[in-house]
Known about the structure:
Low-confidence stretches: none
CATH class of the largest domain: Alpha Beta
Number of strands: 8
Helix content: 40-55%
Mean pLDDT: 95
Order of helices and strands: HEEHHEHEHHEHEHEHEHHHHH
Largest sheet: 8 strands, parallel
Structural class: alpha/beta
Shape: globular
Oligomer: single chain
Number of domains: 2
Radius of gyration: 20 Å
Amino acid sequence: MDxxxxxxxxxxxxxxxxxxxxxxxxxxxxVVQNVPYLSKRVAFHESERPLGFQIYGNSTDEIIKAYxxxxxxxxxxxxxxxxxxxxxxxxxxxxxxxxxxxxxIGEIISALVARSRFPITAKIRLGWDKSSQNYLEVAxxxxxxxxxxxxxxxxxxxxxxxxxxxWEPIAKIKNSLSIPVIGNGDVSNLEDIQRMFSxxxxxxxxxxxxxxGNPWIFSQLKKMDLHRNVILEMVKNHWQxxxxxxxxxxxxxxxxxxxxxYLSTTQFFGLDLKKLISAPDPINELNLYxxx
Length: 292
């Protein structure tokens, strides 16, 4: 999750029970050009293993060049993003934009598998739009060219997150492949986890947006049942990690979205969240509020 699943947050999720860590997606052009913020994208703690670098791009040659540079960091696997629906990514033929060209997907996977000393995995959507749901062709192409695992988000690129996720294609892919299949899309609580396993037969579940502000989902705990002091303690621990990782000035900007997600629950009814988030130093304001 771009902008959310950085090293401090992934470490929290791992401590609470997540099975695998995957980085924010990494633009292969940025790797080749060695942009300044790349070091934060590839940073991880040993406790996060198994950890994969998720990469995206639209040039096989550039993707291989990026792999050669990323190899030195020794991730546990490389994940090819074929699911990002953002216009600036998909419109240039990267992310879900590649779903329109299964042949090229096969070429990229094949080249990575031949080059890599790590397993190669991929994440896909169901297709570009409703009229081109080629998920079985794409999934079989990914497996046929040597990938070790596939994650499937139950929407097309055109749907983004607008419509409910469709889990039936995940079941079809699982029944058609021999490599592990991870289900993804609209898994928001413990009941959803059980339903997805039951309905799709998938080997594992990827949780994204539902974990923002709620890393306890990996411990099979319901946030609504937690005392607010437990949540506040997590906020403070997360803040300390972000501040240490980015420095205070940058952390104050980046942490606001996490703060909003943590505190937008019934345990904090009556808290002026809008005022808190817009404060120059929301963490200090939060401390003052709860020590009055």
